[in-house]
Amino acid sequence: MAATIEWSCRILGPAAHRLFRRLAIVPGSFSLDTVEAIAAPDTADAVSALTELIEHSLVARGDVGHIARFRLLEPVRRYALETLEPAEREQVRQSVGQWALRTARELSARIRGRGDMTAVEQVEVDRGVLRLGFDQLVDARRHDDAAELVWSVWLPLWMSGHSREGFAWTGRLREDDLSERGRARWLVARAGFNRVAADLFAVAERAVRLAEQVDDASLATEAAIFASAAALRLEDFDASGALLDRAEEHVALRLDVRNDVWAAVHVPIGRGDGALLRGDRSAAVGHWRAAAATARELGSGFSVAAVLAECAEAARSEGRLDDAAVMLAAADHELGPQRDGHRRRAHLAGVAAAVAADLGDVASAQWWEGVAGSGTAPLDTAELHKRFEELVRRADTVSGQD
């Protein structure tokens, strides 16, 4: 293998050989957007150099959705890493740090403002490179920039199921090294990744105070939403409602909601969760529909259904199978007759399969697993509506509500 790689490298042009060495710092896949950062300052030949590496089978391509994705196979990467000089490695790391911070800002704006789910996919594809950039910022003692980066990507990391990894990122920063704004961002990111109710409440409440202190309405609203959710889990309904009132005040008076749809939508989602935990399903569904209407009114592609799916997973992990089933049914109705809704419904079906399995309904769990594995195939929405309602009835029976 080494001899084959060495022979391939000998016939590479200078630009391709340089890019080959530099790509070795990436321990996973990367998108085309990252190639120029890794190639810097020699970006003019970056695309043609990448093409040359692909032609010589030194770089493999495997797309994710609409995003082109590339990687060095591990034996190839190890060989390339041995040829990378320390000075050049540090230069590449600095370029990646700059790229990661700039890209995180851009992706955050697209996700929070327009609800751009392709930006979530971009974070997933470039997660390894973003982590490299974050590490470089920390190592360079650019702590506030590192805090901004991790705050910028906490939402897509959470949506992609990488909360544990994201929480580990925040563990690399020390509170005493951060400015007040940096500390508020760091606390909000930690709250976003945290799933222990008592810890989440303490962290988020501190973040609210700090964010208001530095006059950042967006951060304060996010933090108040987190603190409210934690209060619900602690069954402190009064505190939860008061925190949502606080968040709602920021949204109404100080927030540019067209650039922060996420915050505006999560206030009614939080109220829906509170209503559900108090046993008022009708009110819960009303709040969730209001959230979806807000997203549509603001012209955002933000998916309330995706949030309800995540909430359903959390409810299932807490043993609240009846609540999880209600959330899934509401998410299904929110999707409506969307022509492109099959992928999202397949995700809902995966959660439904887990709920059915927890209920002991093996046949239903298997049916849902089949739907979840259908990929991009069109689904019979009428049949799915019926099955979701059956799941709600089954969960109610098991929980003793019937």
Query: Biggest β-sheet: count, sense, barrel?
Result: 3 strands, antiparallel
Number of DSSP helical runs:
21
Number of domains: 4
Radius of gyration: 23 Å
The succession of helices and strands, N to C, reads HHEHHEEHHHHHHHHHHHHHHHHH
Tertiary shape: globular
Strand content: under 5%
- Based on helices, strands and strand pairing, what is the structural class? mainly alpha
Main sheet: strand order: 1-3-2
Number of strands: 3
Low-confidence stretches: none
Distance between the termini: 65 Å
Helix content: over 70%
Walk me through the structure:
This protein is mostly helical and 402 residues long. It starts with a helix and ends with a helix. A three-stranded antiparallel sheet has the order 1-3-2. The model has no long low-confidence stretch (mean pLDDT 85). The chain has 21 helices and three strands. It comes from Kibdelosporangium persicum. InterPro entries: HTH_77. This is Winged helix-turn-helix domain-containing protein.
